Amino acid sequence: MKTIAVIGAGIVGSFLAYDLTQYEEVEVILFEKHGDVAQETSKANSAIVHAGYDPVDGTLKAKLNKRGAKMYQNICKQLGCGYQACGGYVLASNEEEVEILQELYARGKKRGITVEIKEREEVVKNEKNLSKHIRKALWVPDTAIITPWEVCEALVEEALWNGLQLHLHEEVLDIKACEKGYVIRSDKGQYSVDMLVNAAGLGAQKIMEMVEAESLFTITPKRGQYYVLAKRSQPYVSHVLYPAPSKAGKGVLAVPTIHGNILLGPTSEVLKKVDNGTTTSGLQEVQEKVEKIIQHVPYQEVIHSYSGCRPTGNNNDFYIEESRRCKGIFHLGCIDSPGLASAPAISEYVIVDLMKLPLTFHKKKHIVHRQKPLIMRNLSETKQQALIQKHPGYGHIVCYCEQISEQEVVDCIHRKCGAHSIAGVKMRVRPGMGKCQGGYCEVEIAKLLARELQIPLHEVQYDEDSYYEVAKEGRR
Amino acid sequence: MKQVDMIIIGGGSAGMSAAIAAKEAGIDNILILERKEELGGILQQCIHNGFGLQTFHEELSGPMYAQRFIDQIHAYRIPYRLCSDVVWIDERLRVQYVNAEEGYVWVQAKTILLACGCYERNRGAISIPGKRLPGVYTAGSAQRFLNLENILVGKNIFILGSGDIGLIMARRMTLEGANVLGVAEIMPYSNGLNRNIVQCLKDFAIPLYLSHTIVDIQGDFHVERVVIAQVDEHRNILPKTQKSFAVDTLLLSIGLLPEMSLADHLDMEMDSKSKGAKVNAHYETSIPHIYACGNALHVHDIVDFVSMEAHEAALCAVQDIKGQYHRQKQFSTQAGSGISYVLPHSVDAQPSQNITLCVRSIRPYKQVMINIRTGDRIIKTITKRYLLPSEMERIILKPSDIGILEESLIVEVKES
Amino acid sequence: MKKTFDCIVCPMSCHLEVTKQKDDIQVRGNSCLKGAAFARQEMIEPMRMLTTTIRIEHAIYPLLPVITSRNVPKAKLFAIMEACKHVCVSAPVHVNDVIVKNIADSGADLLASRSMERRI
């Protein structure tokens, strides 16, 4: 029996936990300093599975992005997570950019990715709000969208069914070598492990520095700010729209989400330290830059804005290697874009190429699959009726904007990787993601959490460290 | 499919008033659909007083005002369903709702009355900068927590927006032991009723920062500080005017918007100013037999006006049900200078009953006249000592005032 | 002495000008008699209605909204709030039921502001 610790329950750590728990003779411990999975970069990004034409040749990014993108569809289907190959257009508005499209086209072709150059007329048929200046586009049909935190939660849940030990709210403070491996000290205890994967995202440099004599990579938080537009019956955009990439990165995009919202962003700001705030100037920049690709942006339909930091490295590539100094420790640093798209392939690469697991271990004969969550709005009316008859809670709507029933909320609280805060419920079943942003439903969700977790209402947490106060305790 | 003469969506002040009016006009086959667990709507959490002066000539609390209507609904045995969320309405007047007991139910209506109230604008809608931290609530949400659930959402509070709910909450939270450090309003005047400024802020020495807005929200795991700054008349932030407040909670009272999601998929004409549906003087939307009233039509500042409007709208729908509604050629109403919007959006060429015009001014005025004219013909003039955007004006026009219209009706402010 | 008040009697919010010379109080700017009375009272001793909640058991919510039966001295508001902390009733309650007589010696009774049925 080998014990493997994974640090960080973002998308990469979640895939590792999922994959590793499928092996015999492996015990997996997943450490996450936050109170839930997917709380940093994996929670706030563009939610795109890029097809893999973009990274330059010879990089890990190129190799793992292409492979990861191919893996997602099956994984999402198997886990019951949303996946939509909506396709993407990379848009060019001048000669210089058309040349960039040609380069990407050639790169895509060489990698076996379906790519096509389209004239403006063809694109505008599918995207009514295309900017007047767009002349040509690179059509990438395999560009897909997912809900990243949904995938994380599903992966970790399935891993839990297969024996994962999940340690939420537990920060790794120190790692020391011992005779037969390593001792991890956290703020809650000590653990002896044989191997360790540093998938700490924005915190990967800090973890690396705990074990290495010299710095192997440096991580700079690069912030991206986004707008979220409300759902509507006629979507404002239906495909991922990219401007032609430049040295500064992929630029400001317009992205449909699985649930019918539109994301506009991100900015690309180098920060000294992680900050999940938005700024007036940042959102202004999104407005200015997105004009490059689209017009008539319905800003009156903005329901939310957010930002996320990506762990940008110093070498324009992922840093994924076994420590030379400490065998059995694997650093996964600098996982910025296309980290989400590459995540399943990163996990596979670490296990197959770096850990060489198949040589010593076998896959479990019986892998337990989780029961997929019931989503009322996706069911037929007959199925809905039958469900409500059996469990009346499916007929009691508690989130009006997103049409979420009481029972769906209750279900998500009691799942193995369940929600224990209002933010956790929001992430899993969406109350608070609609136009009221929780104005209507937050009280209801808090009451359901209190009832289901059997705690007084004032102990319900909004996020990780928040709680309410009782107004009138008084005496009987 | 069950057949109903009048389906009323929402069992709050508008829905209940409408139901009572319809019942009194002889309609029995009514169904009120309310998504919460009791009738009364938002009034149940508005425990402050000041309701009912127009309707009952008494000063009641919100729940007291609601109670009168609830008792009447029961006395009249008007059918209603609770915990029943309407998920669909269409042009063919079919309504689908869902609840735990019946599941999904389709009903065929003769008329539909949208009385589903309004919702609060929130942080997302106005992109307040700063960190995404717990501790930011809409004032109404905090009010529900406090007045119904016994939860104080914070101890040290700052409030953005001087809308009435924000002012009321400033007093409520102060009385319950919280410290309200201030209220910031981006406009150079308050958006709440003057009486609320007096008894909610001045009484407790809570400062009101006019022409100020939030420029940052700071903290590590929870709101720890908000920073405000002064703005000029174009809402540009003025340098070196920042003030920082150590608070754990930010309440937002930044406006209400009609709840019209049910019409999202319909081809219903909307008013970009009021954010509600466009209606004619019969409160009928651009989709025949679908009526709108109360805060779902446009946001009111006084509940009595909601009740009155719902009453009138219901009577129009009753005429429709009885086959006594004869559609006439319509002339539009227009918001002239100084007016932000006018309701209804169109009137009959030759009205046979009184028309209630609801208008709001663009900015505060002193000593002005409101003119209602068609072409050069002045139909009515009223003088106002004060005209405030936060206080809706109701102007009643008699058929004899209007006569026969040949062009649109214009409402405008004339400064003397 | 001259003072200006914003009238709080009704949503009209009239701007009142009050002049006091010895015992003679003159009010200008009011639209009704109630407004004049308010202005006089405000000069002598400001009075307010108080609305708050008390705890209730076996009802749909843990709180019952309550209101004072008449205006109470502004200076007494917090004393009444404190007294309300220690009151708990049991449903059913009917609107206008007297919950506490002469609460905190304010001269006003505390009334239920709504009806609440008993729920188990």
From TrEMBL, chain A:
<dbReference type="Pfam" id="PF04324">
    <property type="entry name" value="Fer2_BFD"/>
</dbReference>
<dbReference type="InterPro" id="IPR006076">
    <property type="entry name" value="FAD-dep_OxRdtase"/>
</dbReference>
<protein>
    <submittedName>
        <fullName>Glycerol-3-phosphate dehydrogenase</fullName>
    </submittedName>
</protein>
<feature type="domain" description="FAD dependent oxidoreductase">
    <location>
        <begin position="4"/>
        <end position="350"/>
    </location>
</feature>
<dbReference type="InterPro" id="IPR052745">
    <property type="entry name" value="G3P_Oxidase/Oxidoreductase"/>
</dbReference>
<feature type="domain" description="BFD-like [2Fe-2S]-binding">
    <location>
        <begin position="397"/>
        <end position="450"/>
    </location>
</feature>
<dbReference type="InterPro" id="IPR041854">
    <property type="entry name" value="BFD-like_2Fe2S-bd_dom_sf"/>
</dbReference>
<dbReference type="InterPro" id="IPR007419">
    <property type="entry name" value="BFD-like_2Fe2S-bd_dom"/>
</dbReference>
<dbReference type="Pfam" id="PF01266">
    <property type="entry name" value="DAO"/>
</dbReference>
<dbReference type="InterPro" id="IPR036188">
    <property type="entry name" value="FAD/NAD-bd_sf"/>
</dbReference>
Automatic annotation (TrEMBL), chain B:
<dbReference type="InterPro" id="IPR051691">
    <property type="entry name" value="Metab_Enz_Cyan_OpOx_G3PDH"/>
</dbReference>
<dbReference type="InterPro" id="IPR036188">
    <property type="entry name" value="FAD/NAD-bd_sf"/>
</dbReference>
<dbReference type="InterPro" id="IPR023753">
    <property type="entry name" value="FAD/NAD-binding_dom"/>
</dbReference>
<dbReference type="GO" id="GO:0016491">
    <property type="term" value="F:oxidoreductase activity"/>
</dbReference>
<dbReference type="Pfam" id="PF07992">
    <property type="entry name" value="Pyr_redox_2"/>
</dbReference>
<feature type="domain" description="FAD/NAD(P)-binding">
    <location>
        <begin position="5"/>
        <end position="306"/>
    </location>
</feature>
<keyword id="KW-0560">Oxidoreductase</keyword>
<protein>
    <submittedName>
        <fullName>Thioredoxin reductase</fullName>
    </submittedName>
</protein>
From TrEMBL, chain C:
<dbReference type="InterPro" id="IPR012460">
    <property type="entry name" value="DUF1667"/>
</dbReference>
<dbReference type="Pfam" id="PF07892">
    <property type="entry name" value="DUF1667"/>
</dbReference>
<dbReference type="InterPro" id="IPR036593">
    <property type="entry name" value="CPE0013-like_sf"/>
</dbReference>
<protein>
    <submittedName>
        <fullName>CxxC motif-containing protein</fullName>
    </submittedName>
</protein>
